[in-house]
Amino acid sequence: MQRVFSRLRGWLAWTDPRDVARVEGRTVLVTPRPEDAAPQASPAPGGAVAHSLLGNWMSPDELRRAMDARFPGCMEGRTMYVIPFLMGPPGSPLSRPGLQLTDSAYVAASMRIMTRVGAHFLPSSSSSSSSSSSSSSASSADDFVRCLHSVGRPRDGAVEVPSWPCDPSRTLIAHDPRRRRIVSYGSGYGGNSLLGKKGFALRVAAAMARDEGWLAEHMLIVGFEDPRGRKRYLAGAFPSACGKTNLAMMRAALPGYHVTCVGDDIAWMRFDHQGRLRAINPECGFFGVAPGTSEATNPVAMATIRRDTIFTNVGLTSTGDVYWEGIGQSLPPDVTLTSWRGQSWKPGDPEPCAHPNARFCAPASNCPSLDPAWEDPEGVPIDAIIFGGRRPEGVPLVFEAFSWEHGVFLGSAMRSEATAAAEHKGRQLLHDPLAMRPFFGYNAGQHLQHWLDVGARAGARPPRIFHVNWFLRDQSGAFVWPGFGHNARVLAWICARVGGEAGAVATPIGLIPEEGALELRGLRGLRHRDLFPMDRPFWERECRELRAFYGEHFGKHLPREVMAQLEALEGRLRKM
Ligand code: OXD
Ligand code: MN
Question: How confident is residue 3, by pLDDT bands cut at 50, 70 and 90?
Fold first, then answer.
């Protein structure tokens, strides 16, 4: 069921219950050799497909066969939308154009929010140098990313039941990074179908970035201003379900500090002539998880989605408003609810009212905390990079890497509890190097090496790298850190470190704030040692686990420097 809200000037879509998240198992990279796609992708002899934790591979011949079996006639009876679009601010040398064909009106409308749409963004055959409103450093008329999408259900004119057409048993999302092509069949949902997002801006862009010497990463970008008006920009990589959107839109719970939003999901970054890392947000909208979003957890998001927003799989009130778990608004007794499955729903029912991966899709221009420089063609200068994960035990609130190389190691070692954004079940700790595990566009070992290479390049002045964990729990299972706006306290320490103004103590895993350096005033009962556990047996287990992970999933493709960093950590722990 899909409907327009007059009051909200928004739209609500309810999907087929079989099409509710990214499908990682059906997302593939198409390269001549399996090891070009993922380090340990090894097909059975003669096989044309290989699955691995760090990416799935499909041979070009197999893709041709798969497309022949799916595409002919698949759009029959539907409208085909042709969407020329730009990823990145107009006029930026970092921006790149694309063209998506789709037979889904939902996808066309969502792309209109998430990307800049317009035929002038495509390089024209007459202009090999870009025009002023086009942007990109595209050098020839066919230098754009081609995206083909179909829901996979020809239409015979009858009323469709369910009204969300899809072909879940044959869904396939295939990327050919060499030919800059993405083919998506069978799903209309999020990253499966809005091909500018994960497909282009992460997977294909990562391969472009490798070839051209920049970085395409699963990162938010924020500005952080201190009470003296000094502003720094930070980029942060967090796996899905770690509160990236909340951090990107945070209202600081520390007087005098302000957070501004440049982006909440993806960063394209390049070292400029002065050696500073510059970042743009290639998107111009937010595709955020709705459940848990409230005036208390993310008032900026609540303001952002007040209008012009496409909601997917949230609940519906009898007054024509949206509803989800954790929305934090009590309903008048006469208001009734319909769940995302289209059934009448009341609090206490066993199934949730909104799907856990229900989404809002809203234009960035609605966001009240949008940074004034968010569309600066040069990108914003990044002073610190933050890696993080959802780690219930052992991992301190924040620590700083000793060097760029150590920071890349921390990125390779990221782990986090699983997410509703993909098809995984339950709470399990998943390895998620650089928060890119589902989004690598080429061999993940080479991606790590690329990080090492760009940082080592002459003239590069790499930003400092930090690791954060908002999700430590105490013995009763309660969160130790209040999170949300209080995360500004951690950002304040990070920026003070960058400015050479805050003290730190070296531990085997990195530099932690010295006592008193992290502003804890106003937070009762929080002791430094609860926030900064340093348990040698925990880290020894972590190292063993990491060694096994590297061996099993990176094998010979793990950069030597990353292994050297692990060995150095093991050595420091022995001396502890
Ligand atoms: C997302 C994700 O942004 O899964 O949807 O990372
Ligand atoms: Mn994401």
Answer: low
Q: Produce one character per residue of 53-82: b if its CB has 16 or more CB atoms within 10 Å, e if not.
A: bbbbbbbeebbeebbeebeeebbeebeebe
Residues 6+ apart with CB under 8 A from 458: none
Residue 150 three-state SS: strand
* pLDDT per position as a tens digit, 435-452: 999 999 999 999 999 999
Residue 146 CA to residue 123 CA, distance in Å, equals 13
Kindly report the number of other CB atoms within 10 A of residue 346's CB atom. Answer: 10
Question: Does 22 participate in catalysis according to the annotation?
Answer: yes
494, 495, 511, 573: which is closest to 540 by C-alpha? 573
- Reduce the DSSP state of residue 303 to 3 states and report it: helix
Half-sphere exposure in the Cβ direction for 117 (13 Å, CA): 17
The CA-based angle 25-313-341, given to 5 degrees, is 100
Residues 6+ apart with CB under 8 A from 248: 220, 221, 222, 261, 262, 263, 264
Q: Is the CB of 134 under 6 A from ligand 1?
A: no
**Distance separating the N- and C-terminal Cα atoms of the chain:** 60
> Residue 520 CB: number of other CB atoms within 10 A?
17
Query: 240 in ligand 1 pocket by Cβ < 6 Å?
Result: yes
Please compute Rg for the chain using Cα positions. Answer: 23
CB 498, CB 465: distance < 8 Å: no
| Position in ligand 1 atom list of the atom nearest CA 239 | 6
Bridging pattern class, strands 380-388 and 277-280: antiparallel
pLDDT of residue 129: 44
Residue 422: nearest ligand to its CA? 1
Backbone angles phi, psi at 363, to 5 degrees: -70, 140
Residue with tokens 């009762």: 524
Q: What is the pTM (predicted TM-score) of this model?
A: 0.95
Is the pLDDT at 555 greater than 50? The verdict is: yes
Burial of 170 (0-12, 13-18, 19+ CB in 10 A): middle
